């Protein structure tokens, strides 16, 4: 084989390697869709018996969340900025409604309680193409939804369900976690 044959083979080999590396780089740089977070709802925590994992995201990032209810009670997921304010207002409203003679089911399904929750929602969820302030998942079920974090700050995800803890919420029992949105 002459020297020109060797150099042609070398050039072809180099070109093949360069094209392969470029294709791999393009594949790795193309967004692969939203990051997925899996949360398992238990009594009374996310991914454990109390609390929930800290989730860190970038402003503008969208997360896909898979919520699996591995507990024996219904569980909710909502995102708020002022968790303490929400829980205080809910507690006060429950006491007020009890003083008026309302029973547990009447209180937990009342428009007044729902309005307090809706007022505290900081970021809406996207469920099946529709916006929602919260999602609820029954025991044994799984629900997927997405959420986009546009503003920096610290948020709380929590379960404000009353089942098995009335007059307190599951969040009062420790069922919440932190979301930090970085710039």
From TrEMBL:
InterPro entries the record matches: Cupredoxin (IPR008972)
Keyword field contains Transmembrane: yes
Transmembrane among keywords: yes
Domain of life of the organism encoding this protein: Archaea
Keywords: Membrane, Transmembrane, Transmembrane helix
Residues annotated as transmembrane: 6-30
Protein name: EfeO-type cupredoxin-like domain-containing protein
């Amino acid at each position: 084989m002459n020297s020109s044959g060797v150099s042609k083979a070398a050039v072809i080999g180099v070109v093949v390697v360069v094209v392969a590396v470029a294709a791999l780089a393009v594949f790795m740089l193309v967004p692969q869709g939203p990051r997925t977070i899996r949360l398992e709802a238990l009594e009374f925590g996310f991914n454990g018996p109390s609390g929930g994992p800290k989730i860190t995201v970038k402003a503008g990032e969208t997360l896909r969340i898979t919520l699996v209810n591995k507990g024996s009670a219904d569980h909710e997921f909502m995102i708020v900025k002022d968790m303490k304010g929400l829980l205080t207002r809910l507690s006060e409203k429950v006491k007020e409604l009890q003083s008026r003679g309302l029973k547990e089911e009447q209180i937990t399904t009342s428009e007044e309680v729902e309005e307090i929750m809706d007022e505290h929602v900081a970021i809406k969820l996207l469920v099946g193409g529709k916006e929602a302030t919260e999602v609820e998942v029954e025991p044994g079920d799984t629900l997927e939804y997405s959420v986009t974090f546009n503003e920096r700050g610290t948020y709380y995800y929590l379960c404000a369900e009353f089942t098995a803890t009335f007059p307190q919420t599951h969040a009062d029992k420790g069922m919440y976690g932190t979301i930090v949105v970085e710039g």
